[in-house]
Amino acid sequence: MTARNMLGAIFLTVTVAILTGCGTAERNQVADAEITSTLPPTLTPSSLPSNLQSALPSTTVDTSPPSGDRRTDALAELSRLPIKGRAPKTGYDRALFGDAWTDDVTVEGGRNGCDTRNDILRRDLVDIVFKPGSNDCAIVSGILHDPYSGATIAFERGADTSADVQIDHIVALSDSWQKGAQNWDEVTRRNFANDPLNLQATVGNLNQQKGDGDAATWLPPDKSYRCSYVARIVKVKSVYAIWVTQAERDAIVQVLSSCGASDFDMPSEETSSETTPVETEPFTPITQPEPLPESPLAPSLPLETPLPPVDVSAAYYPNCRAAKAAGAAPLYAGQPGYRTGLDGDGDGVACEG
């Protein structure tokens, strides 16, 4: 082969290789474009095949922001609460929720050097006077504008007067026990019993009248506060994953159905850092039930009407440990089991810490 023929063969081979490579690149570009066009722009449950969609969890965590309408928000939260019957009260003991008004909690106000009772008095009273040397903890006197009754009460610390103002668990400890708290650990129960979201200072006789009732059996006598009251019940039960009974749910809906934007006056809703978000069903609007009769609600107890006399000798506790073990603590002056020997600071509330 001559040199000229050899050069011609080499040129022909190089030319064929270049043309072949270009054709492959063009085909690859077309294939890539076809693949890209078949991918969904965003991977969402609806873009998955039906057989994969069915494998997704049926419950989700509600991350939607509040609407700003407390009535709407309360109804939305209520719709996500499970509806069940009451569990047996078997095994309930106040001591399972920790020492009364302990500061050893992780909710707002916890471990601040002041017990929960005085923390709430400081929040809910005005014109407060502190006990000297208590580091602005122990309240000597103050004024309570009671939201439950609408009355103004003068609080004065003392064996015969402290019990005039008591701290109500908006969702009672016993009620929570029968609706989910039996499954909580010790820390959660202790936080729940001392969470400011679930506590309200009120006149003593109303706190005693309510007992462990829920919204189906007791509402504040001052109707102007009922919207805020039931909204706080819903908030507490939502935060702590406590269920409601059908009667309780219907009573709450009945109250909220008549509420306007100006009917709510809720305190701080800061909650424990230990609280775990609750998995809930997607929101389904609530159908308003027929109005409930007034009869299920306990009749209002006039403030000037004293509590029925009690036989203090009917219960005796040798010490506060025994009172707590019996689920009776704290003991207020005039209640069965109260005696000054258990009330170390003479404020009318024994076995409170």
From TrEMBL:
<feature type="compositionally biased region" description="Low complexity">
    <location>
        <begin position="38"/>
        <end position="52"/>
    </location>
</feature>
<feature type="region of interest" description="Disordered">
    <location>
        <begin position="263"/>
        <end position="297"/>
    </location>
</feature>
<feature type="domain" description="Excalibur calcium-binding">
    <location>
        <begin position="316"/>
        <end position="352"/>
    </location>
</feature>
<feature type="compositionally biased region" description="Polar residues">
    <location>
        <begin position="53"/>
        <end position="66"/>
    </location>
</feature>
<feature type="region of interest" description="Disordered">
    <location>
        <begin position="38"/>
        <end position="71"/>
    </location>
</feature>
<dbReference type="Pfam" id="PF07510">
    <property type="entry name" value="GmrSD_C"/>
</dbReference>
<dbReference type="Pfam" id="PF05901">
    <property type="entry name" value="Excalibur"/>
</dbReference>
<dbReference type="InterPro" id="IPR008613">
    <property type="entry name" value="Excalibur_Ca-bd_domain"/>
</dbReference>
<dbReference type="InterPro" id="IPR011089">
    <property type="entry name" value="GmrSD_C"/>
</dbReference>
<protein>
    <submittedName>
        <fullName>Excalibur calcium-binding domain protein</fullName>
    </submittedName>
</protein>
<feature type="compositionally biased region" description="Low complexity">
    <location>
        <begin position="273"/>
        <end position="285"/>
    </location>
</feature>
